[in-house]
Amino acid sequence: MKMTKLLFREDAYLKSVDAVVQSINERGGIVLDKTNFYATAGGQPGDKGALSFDGKSIEIATTVYDDTKNVVHVAANAEHLPALGASVKLDLDWHTRYRNMRAHTMMHLLCACVPFPVTGGSISDDGGRIDFDIPEGQIPSKDDLAARINQLILEDHKVSFRWISDEEMQANLHLVRTMSVKPPMGTGKVRLVMIGDEGKIDLQPCGGTHVKSTAEIGPMRVAKIESKGKINRRIRLAFA
Fold this sequence. Notes:
Elements: E1 5-6, E2 16-24, E3 29-32, E4 34-35, E5 49-53, E6 56-65, E7 71-75, E8 87-92, H1 94-113, E9 118-124, E10 127-133, H2 142-154, E11 159-165, H3 166-170, E12 189-195, E13 202-205, E14 220-227, E15 232-239
Parallel strand pairs: 1-4
Antiparallel strand pairs: 2-3, 2-8, 3-7, 5-6, 5-8, 6-7, 9-10, 10-15, 11-12, 12-13, 14-15
Helix pairs in contact: 1-2
């Protein structure tokens, strides 16, 4: 069985796609030949939406990777599933996906404004958070940090990507910000997400979905900066 083609890596705005069922696992998870649904990874939740076939529509509750790193669409109810080889249509819950896209790009701007090692992070319904190892005395104030990020949003910087080889990634590991997550290597190429011309604002490997410009994020606020260890600080951002 071929690996699912990940269409969201080339076009995060693809709301619907026609696909073919490749397999269905013992728990009713559906594997397709291609998908526009993002599978849970890197702190970004898996997409949800609907899968239609033969005049029926079933709810996809989330999307995950299986042990072979293939994409599995998890049906909310496994009673009525398509047959192997069936043609189906995938429709994203676009409201949730677009919110995650805005939040993920906002997290990259947070990284650009807080130049310290990242130890974790996640996207939530109202924004997201990142944990940093920040030396004492260098913790930014909430107001100053919000002003810097909102300024980058207002400046409407382009968000784009380019691919490099695994070997190029191995030679440029300084681009990896997250200490707890390995760069997405293993397929022969790695996607770099760039904010600003040639990534002058932010440049790092990332397989997630992003908006096309920082202006799409909209106004935000720093909800909280809290201590999670001797030098570890959790910074939460929220949409204003």
